[in-house]
C-alpha cells in the first residue's frame, strides 16, 4: 500500500486475476447453465457469462468484499440475459425501414428448439444431482 492507503494498480490487477480465475473455476459452469436455461442458445449464454467475469475483473477494486463476488456474477449474468432477450424481442429493421417478420412456421420451430434445449438442460441437471 502507498502512503495514502490505496493499493497500487499492479497489486489490484494481480489480486483480481487470481481471484477471478478461482471464481471462474468454481462458478462458470453453473452460471453458463443458468444463462443457457434463460436464453436457449449456448453461444449467447457463454458470451453473457464471459462478459460477467470481465465486468467483475474490471470492477474488482470497487467490490465490497471477495464474498460478494458470486452474487455480483449471478446478478450480472441475469442482467446480461435480460438484455439479450430484450434485443431479441425487437424486430429487425432493414435500411429501407421495413421490419423483418418471421413466418409463423419459423417462430414455431424456434420455440420448439428452445423447449428441447430447456428439457435437455433439465435432464442434465437431474443427472448431475443424482
Give me the secondary-structure topology.
Blueprint: H1 9-39, H2 42-58, H3 69-89, E1 92-93, E2 99-100, H4 104-129
Antiparallel strand pairs: 1-2
Outline:
The protein has 130 residues and is mostly helical. The chain has helices spanning 9-39, 42-58, 69-89, 104-129; strands spanning 92-93, 99-100. The protein contains four helices and two strands; from the N terminus they run H-H-H-E-E-H.
Could you walk me through the main structural features you see in this protein, from its secondary elements to its overall organization?
The chain is mainly alpha-helical. The chain is built from four helices and two strands, in the order αααββα. The protein has a two-stranded antiparallel sheet. Strand 1 (92-93) and strand 2 form a beta hairpin. The protein starts with 8 loop residues before the first helix and ends with a helix.
Shape: flat
Note poorly predicted spans.
Answer: 1-11
Counting helices, strands and paired strands, the structural category is mainly alpha
Q: Please state the average pLDDT score.
A: 80
How is the biggest beta sheet arranged? 2 strands, antiparallel
Helix fraction, binned, reads: over 70%
Question: What is the number of helical segments per DSSP (H or I, 4+ residues)?
Answer: 4
Strand order of the largest sheet: 1-2
Order of helices and strands: HHHEEH
Proportion of residues in extended strands: under 5%
Q: Count the E strands.
A: 2
Radius of gyration: 19 Å
Distance between the termini: 48 Å
